[in-house]
Specification:
The structure is a single chain. By secondary structure, the protein is an all-alpha fold. It has 3 helices and no strands. Helix 1 packs across helix 2 and helix 1 crosses helix 3. It is globular.
Amino acid sequence: MTMFKDTIYIKKADIPEQFPQGWKKKAAEAIGIHPFSVSRILRNPKNPNYDRLMEAARSIYGKAEAL
């Protein structure tokens, strides 16, 4: 009998292949930008808000997997 519990490691959440309808609006509200700005951000991955947008989408729609 061990005194310690097994440690579960969580990876970053994976992005689904296709987001459901309305994901842009929810992600925009999560990071505090206007929903129309999302399409401009997605056209240019070098935009500084691109990483924030993808992280918000991962947190809303992603599924974390245990290692």
